[in-house]
Design a protein that fits this description.
This is UDP-sugar pyrophosphorylase. With 272 residues, the chain is α/β, with parallel strands linked by helices. It has helices at 7-15, 44-54, 104-107, 115-119, 130-147, 181-187, 243-246, and strands at residues 61-62, 80-81, 151-152, 156-160, 163-167, 170-173, 188-189, 193-194, 199-202, 209-210, 213-214, 217-220, 229-233, 250-254.
């Protein structure tokens, strides 16, 4: 069965199945067992069939959290829980279940520990704090720009709230600037470089970085253009386009528009 194993179940499971030390780092410095971030993708057809069969019921369990190893007092209220990642347990043996592994820097930066608890985490292990979570965003954005061809300086190590973290350039952008790596590649060109002590905030959609050399702080906020519908040329020899488009010689690119539907007569005011 391909299924997530809850963190509180992983260590005893490993100790009972040939790993006497439980979940410990191997020679790479990391756990050999991939962690999960509970990002689930369901195929709707089989999912609806399963909901019809089970009524959406998932087996419950209790996960108590104690103040210390004596297990005589709870650290927080204990309650019945059920996990969405246990869904495969309800599926028949013929069901196809898989998983995708991503590099940690791109996919995982939880914020769940307070500063005091995070400072107690052994060096080399993730702090999972507000400090490490925010620094992970800057690291990810810096590495993404590196992969797009930008020369981003290496980070420096600093300590905040007792936690040693990598400090990369403070780079952020709004989703409307770039949702995919393809968007970023399209908007970055030439010889661009960003120093470690720099900060950059990108807020607008139609912003392009060309031969940028940044050694300081830069905030770019571009006014959005009103684009509406645009007519784009299409060569009739371009077989990649449908025949009905080729014979017209153009296509209409519906970039932005305002659409209102009125089911009753009357007077209406449009704003947009």
């Amino acid at each position: 069965m391909v299924i997530n194993v809850e963190y509180n179940q992983l260590d005893p499971l490993l100790r009972a199945t040939g790993y006497p030390d439980g979940d410990v780092n191997c020679e790479t410095g990391y756990s050999p067992f991939p962690g999960n971030i509970n990002q689930l993708i369901f195929e709707l057809g089989p999912y609806i069939e399963e909901l019809t069969k089970t009524g959406g019921s998932i087996k419950e369990f209790v996960n108590p959290k104690y103040k210390d190893s004596s297990k005589s007092a709870f650290k927080s209220s204990t309650r019945l829980e059920c996990m969405m990642q246990d869904y495969p347990k309800t599926l028949p043996p013929s069901a196809r279940v898989g998983f995708t592994v991503l590099d940690t820097w791109l996919a995982y930066a939880p914020v769940k520990n307070n500063p005091e608890d995070a400072a107690k985490v052994p060096k080399g292990n993730p702090y999972h704090s507000a400090t490490s979570g925010e620094m992970a965003i800057y690291r990810a954005n810096s590495l993404i720009l590196r992969k797009a061809g930008v020369k981003v300086e290496d980070p420096v190590n600093q300590v905040f709230n007792g936690q040693e973290v990598e400090v990369w350039p403070l780079i952020t952008w709004k989703p409307k600037w770039a949702l995919t790596f393809g968007d970023i590649k399209r908007k970055v060109s030439g010889s661009c470089s960003i120093s470690q002590k720099s900060a950059m905030v990108i807020k607008g959609r139609n912003i392009f970085l060309e031969d940028l050399s940044l050694d300081g702080a830069l905030v770019i906020d571009a006014v959005e253009e009103t684009e509406g519908w645009m007519i784009e040329n299409v060569d009739y020899k371009d077989v990649a386009a449908p025949e009905e488009v080729r014979i017209r010689g153009f296509r209409i690119n519906r970039v932005e528009h305002l659409e209102k539907t009125y089911s009753e007569p009357g007077k209406f005011t449009l704003k947009g």
